# Entry
Amino acid sequence: MKKLLSKTYLRDVSKYELKFFSDNEDFYLVVKRVVKTDPKFVTFKGLCLIDDGYYIVELLPKNENYAMRVFLNDKKEPLEYYFDISLENGIDEETKVPYYDDLFTDVIVVGDKVFVVDENELKDALEKGVIKQADFELANKTTAVLVAELKNGTNRFKNLNLMQYLN
# Structure
């Protein structure tokens, strides 16, 4: 499923500011500053990820099979890193907006904990013929490499200083 970075994760947000950064050779980046949301978004574990004054930073590597989303509070402190495993990343020809083609499985980082979620959705997509075997294998391989990088602190995009984009 193709997801445009300009439209993702804004369901209850009624007003926001949006900035695109496309001049980096390795990635596209979108910063969304939430001005007004109702209700705020709180995870089932009680973590508030979207509220007035919060940020959502989406980074789309040009040569990797994932998209990275960082939720930051109004003090610009990271709350959660969310990685969508993707079939491909690019620029949508019609809208000229960065997109990723979601491959169902996700990796979440909260503090020093790394979680893999929605693996059942990936398996269901394969069984229903939504994706091919090669896509299934790509998703699993990408997830394994990403989890290893996140656990040993070597993922270059998670280690990127995002503050320079938040002015």
User: Anything to note?
Assistant: Residues 15 and 164 are 23 Å apart (CA to CA). The helical segments are 119-127, 133-152. Residues 133-152 form the longest helix (20 residues).
